[in-house]
Fold Origin recognition complex subunit 4.
Amino acid sequence: MQSESIESCKRFIREKILQPAEFRGFEEQRTNLLNLMERAVWDHDSNSALLIGPAGCGKTTLVRSVLKELAEKKDFAKKALVINLNGLIHTDDRLSLKSMCKQMSLENVVDERVTGNFADNMALILSSLQNSDQKKALIFILEEMDLFCNHHNQSLLYNLFDLAHKNESAVFVLGVTLRLDVMDRMEKRVRSRFSYRSIYLLPVHDAVDFESRIGLCRSWLFIDTSCFNRTLCKAWNKHINKLLDENEAAYNCIKRLYDMQNNEESTKELLLHAISRLGEDNTTLSGQDFEEALQDVISDGWLQILDGLSTLEICLVIAMKQLGEVYQGDPVNFEMVYSRYLKFAKNHSSFEDCNRNTVIKAFEHLQALEIILPVTGHGAKTQSQYQLYHFQLSAQQVKSAVKRFEELPTEVQQWAELNLL
Ligand SMILES: Nc1ncnc2c1ncn2[C@@H]1O[C@H](COP(=O)(O)OP(=O)(O)OP(=O)(O)O)[C@@H](O)[C@H]1O
Ligand SMILES: [Mg+2]
């Protein structure tokens, strides 16, 4: 294949893979969600629900597909307003409120001058909406919903669920999350306003499903006559069929990734990495391209960051992992981490340097790397050593980082392996 053709072939496949997909499967869950939204919009029947499923299983695609279908119905735009919030962006209630107002075109109602509590502001927003000529049903989509549980008093969640619970105005609140334990994270008063309706997107994992994944790979990697001449299409698609049906290495890479993280997102990522290897000198995909692509996909970005830490910093990471085990994942502050580290360091002569300022510097570096993230929205400013942080790494990641750390003192290795439970 000529280099020009291979470049356009790469571009064509990449665009196909990255294109937003039509939602497939999970018909029952889709109908369920569609009905709930329809009832809110056309029957003014408020409700709330959670959409739960592992990363990349299609939650966002499902919501988009349902909203697209609704948008095509007559009068939807007149009768409903969709408000999108995302826990990663709207990290406290004030930001959430601002974004809500913007999406409702009510920026002038709640502006910087209004300092009342969340419920007051919410009431203000609703009354302005009610006074407008056209009462619209409000559909709130809360992506990364579990992160809203970290907001001060969970006011936003409480007020939204309360609105849906009271059913005075048509409201539908959908929380989208990958955390199965999200209900445990809700405060009791929030839970009591929630409908307890959960829609689960749990991917199946079997031979039939895997074969359909191979079928998807085929459809992504094929080229067609809309952009290429017939001879080229025939030759390329024949090559793809041979690759997927007969090349053991390529097949095994797709299977391994499927077994590790059964989501389409990661299969797409694997194919993108594989086709990025195509070029003038490499005009066909080989098993080796897939093997290298698999390495790229499964190499953990965190591990590369952790490779750059100092011994003191890795000690703090270990201390935080242990605190996470003791306090079951609750946030930690500097004092807790420092005292855990001191306990260890005092018992080991090689760790004489326990200077508080040095440890503070190391702790700040971990924060800059976002290995720890501050818990926000606690009103009055806390002294920095008592500021709470969420630790972002899993026990497995810490274990791998310790293993990879060259010349880590033996006592630190042993301390890392300590099982506290
Ligand atoms: N059932 C499905 N139908 C169509 N596409 C899907 C489906 N499941 C996953 N995908 C594809 O997988 C990718 C990830 O999907 P999506 O972003 O909807 O997942 P998610 O569950 O929202 O993930 P996250 O938890 O990371 O937000 C998208 O490219 C999407 O096209
Ligand atoms: Mg999503």
User: Anything to note?
Assistant: The pocket of magnesium ion (ligand 2) is lined by residues 59-60, 143 (CB under 6 Å). The chain is about 55% helix and 10% strand. The mean pLDDT is 89. The beta strands are 47-52, 80-86, 137-143, 171-177, 198-200, 372-374, 389-391.
